[in-house]
Specification:
Blueprint lengths: L35 E4 L2 H12 L2 E6 L7 E5 L5 E6 L18 E5 L3 H10 L3 E8 L5 E6 L5 E5 L11
Parallel strand pairs: 1-4, 5-8
Antiparallel strand pairs: 2-3, 3-4, 6-7, 7-8
């Protein structure tokens, strides 16, 4: 699936299969919401997100430095898609946000360890770890492209039961 068609809303996936997220017990469903972003240097961003935050590269299609489509899995559930910034296809709408305009909340069971990893890898920490009034432990960081990443233990509110 090309990043142009992979969901352009840029919405987060905070509750999809993260710690305590998802419906019922057992295995979380496969991710069906894929936050997507564009990058000036997609290959470098993939390396950074893997080293600093622990995302795992699943696929990266493209030639040379150009990335047409990449998927990075979050080890605790869910993932993101990204690709190199490029002009809109003939007759198509432009990408809704340029490089460095993305933000996401990512659920993690151990934000303090992730904070230490991110800082050691050179991530710009924008908010040091802190406890929220609703029981989450959070911190925030920016990647080299200027995107903002919020990490914490809050898995989202329980989903309403079906029926």
């Amino acid at each position: 699936m090309d990043t142009d068609t992979a969901g352009t809303s840029g919405t987060g996936d905070a509750g999809s299969g993260g710690a305590g997220g998802g419906a019922g017990g057992g295995t979380a469903p496969a991710p069906q919401v894929w936050p997507s972003l564009r990058a000036r240097d997609a290959r470098a961003l993939i390396r950074f997100l893997s080293e600093a935050f622990g995302f795992e590269e699943v696929v990266a299609y493209g030639e040379g430095e150009f990335v047409a489509h990449a998927e990075l899995a979050w080890p605790e559930g869910g993932g993101i898609m990204l690709g190199s910034d490029r002009p809109a296809p003939e007759g198509g709408e432009p990408w809704p946000g340029g490089p460095g305009t993305f933000s996401a909340y990512v659920v993690t069971a151990d934000p303090d360890a992730l904070h230490a990893r991110a800082a050691a890898a050179g991530a710009r920490i924008t908010t040091a770890p802190y406890d929220t009034e609703y029981g989450s432990r959070d911190f925030a960081a920016a990647d080299p492209e200027g995107n903002h990443w919020y990490f914490g233990t809050y898995p989202g509110a329980p989903r309403p039961s079906a029926g």
